[in-house]
């Protein structure tokens, strides 16, 4: 492959890394008054990245490389992936890229303030600006009449509303009655988080132990605190995770860390020879989310996992958990109950939160829902799908950071990740017959290594669904996920689902 083209690939990866670092810092250590400055800096950086990506010389180099017959399979994949990204971005004016980056920075600042005051109206004008820019961006990308498709393509290549809506609708219709059945069948459990204290230092120490045990390389990454947990960083050797600690409830920190570790393991698992190329990336956010959801739920909420880790958790919080045995704790962390906050939701209700967001942002991108009606529309769907109404905007329409970031099209990837995770876990159990035994002994590396070989190391060589099909023998399906829910929660509740 041409030396200039390889150099440009590395340069683009370096710029992505610096943008990633600035974005991570924006959510962790950035001083309160520095928001506008960081918005301007990110606007400049994203503008530079866009300029280099749409450079006509890069287009010529990629076209020339595509005609070469002696390229390796990986080199052909690099050319294909970068050509796809460039073909999308060359349609977007540089001024729009910079305007969007700056608007995102202002929007984040306004979102934080609106959350503090529990007032959506403070965020509304900034959301309106980001939305308008995203619609303009979708039109620039091009679409067949469905703007959302153009944005979805950036997170889940090849996915379209025409396919996605039936998948989410069918799943939603299966889950609503399942939630109702479980709500009436589950046994009463003690309130582990009323009046009990779980000190921050002990929570932090426990989460760091979990990171080490799952195989996250702390010499090639770190964990910090943020309002909304996320994974970022600059490179496969510099992966940044965040978690959120609440001293009245350790579950957000525990499961946020396990979730983000799944993302982090993926980032650290790319083949070293791909680090400076477009192949050091997941082929879709749905596949990326499959890794976090697999670790968080299919491993982290399993009985074998807590057979090993609960004694250590109890030792970390001897006063709070002195009267709580492992059966009770396992029941509490798998209790199915409608809740306001998506990231705290159980496995059964979680995808109803995603359906709600997908339906609303589809309306927003279509400009079919006035923004001043958004909080009411949110609350109405919460009542219909989960039977509860948020008491304020912070626990309702303001709870997620994604719209402040302008990430329209991202939410559905969580559900796609859940579906892929169930299928991948089923395949892992076939390949590792003693998987549950390993987990019950705290031996998490066999699963990490299996995922690294079959998922992580492949990077962006092939499309996500093709990778899953190669591993499991099937593409996107809800059958494995629903079977998993019915088996697990049927056994826990004693009812047929």
CATH topology category name of the largest domain = Neurolysin, domain 3
Using the 3D structure, state the CATH architecture of the largest domain: Orthogonal Bundle
Order of helices and strands: HHHHHHHHHEEEHHHHHHHHHHHH
Counted beta strands: 3
What is the CATH class name of the largest domain? Mainly Alpha
Largest sheet: 3 strands, mixed
* CA radius of gyration: 22 Å
Task: Give the total of domains.
Answer: 2
The percentage of residues in β strands lies in under 5%
Instruction: Assign an overall shape.
Output: globular
Helix content: 55-70%
The chain-level structural class is mainly alpha
Would you tell me the overall average pLDDT? 95
Biggest sheet: strands side by side, in what order? Answer: 1-3-2
Q: Are there runs of 5+ residues with pLDDT below 50, and where?
A: none
Instruction: Supply the number of helical segments.
Output: 21
Distance between the termini: 55 Å
General description of the model:
The protein is mainly α. The protein has two domains: 115 residues, no CATH class; 333 residues, Neurolysin, domain 3, CATH 1.10.1370. Helix content is 63%, strand content 3%. A three-stranded mixed sheet has the order 1-3-2. Helix 3 packs antiparallel against helix 4 and helix 10 packs across helix 11. The longest helix is centred in the middle third of the chain and has 25 residues.
């Amino acid at each position: 492959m041409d030396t200039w083209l390889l150099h440009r690939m590395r340069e683009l990866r370096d710029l992505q890394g610096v943008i990633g670092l600035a974005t991570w810092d924006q959510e962790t250590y950035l001083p309160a008054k520095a928001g506008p400055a960081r918005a301007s800096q990110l606007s400049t950086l994203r503008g530079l990245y866009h300029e280099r990506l749409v450079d006509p010389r890069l287009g010529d180099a990629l076209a020339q490389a595509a005609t070469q017959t002696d390229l390796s399979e990986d080199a052909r994949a690099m050319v294909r992936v970068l050509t796809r990204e460039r073909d999308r971005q060359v349609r977007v004016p540089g001024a729009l890229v910079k305007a969007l980056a700056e608007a995102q920075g202002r929007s984040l600042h306004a979102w934080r303030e609106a959350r503090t005051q529990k007032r959506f109206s403070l965020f509304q004008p900034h959301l309106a600006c980001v939305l308008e820019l995203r619609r303009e961006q979708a039109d620039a990308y091009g679409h067949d009449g469905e703007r959302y498709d153009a944005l979805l393509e950036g997170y889940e290549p090849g996915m379209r509303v025409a396919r996605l809506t039936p998948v989410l609708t069918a799943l939603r219709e299966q889950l609503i009655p399942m939630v109702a059945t479980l709500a009436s069948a589950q046994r009463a459990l003690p309130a582990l988080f009323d009046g009990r204290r779980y000190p921050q230092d002990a929570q932090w120490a426990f989460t760091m132990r979990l990171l080490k045990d799952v195989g996250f390389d702390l010499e090639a990454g770190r964990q910090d605190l943020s309002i909304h947990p996320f994974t970022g960083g600059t490179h496969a050797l510099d992966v940044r995770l965040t978690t959120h600690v609440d001293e009245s409830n350790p579950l957000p920190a525990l499961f946020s860390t396990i979730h983000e570790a799944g993302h982090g393991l993926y980032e650290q698992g790319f083949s070293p020879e791909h680090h400076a190329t477009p192949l050091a990336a997941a082929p879709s956010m749905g596949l990326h989310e499959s890794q976090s959801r697999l670790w968080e739920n299919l491993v982290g909420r399993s009985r074998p996992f807590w057979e090993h880790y609960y004694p250590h958790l109890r030792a970390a919080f001897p006063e709070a958990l002195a009267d709580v045995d492992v059966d009770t704790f396992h029941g509490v962390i798998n209790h199915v109950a409608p809740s306001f906050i998506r990231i705290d939701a159980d496995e059964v209700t979680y995808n109803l939160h995603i359906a709600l967001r997908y339906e609303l942002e589809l309306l927003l991108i279509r400009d079919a829902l006035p923004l001043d009606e958004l909080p009411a529309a949110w609350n109405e769907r919460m009542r219909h799908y989960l039977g509860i109404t948020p008491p304020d905007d912070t626990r309702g329409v303001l709870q997620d950071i994604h719209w402040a970031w302008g990430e329209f099209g991202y939410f559905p990837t969580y559900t796609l990740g859940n579906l892929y995770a169930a299928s991948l876990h089923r395949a892992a159990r076939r390949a590792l017959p003693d998987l549950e035994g390993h987990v019950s002994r705290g031996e998490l590396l066999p699963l990490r290594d299996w995922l690294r070989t079959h998922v992580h190391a492949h990077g962006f060589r092939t499309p996500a669904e093709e990778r899953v099909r190669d591993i499991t023998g099937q593409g996107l399906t809800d059958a494995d996920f629903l079977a998993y829910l019915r088996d697990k929660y049927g056994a826990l509740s004693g009812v047929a689902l």
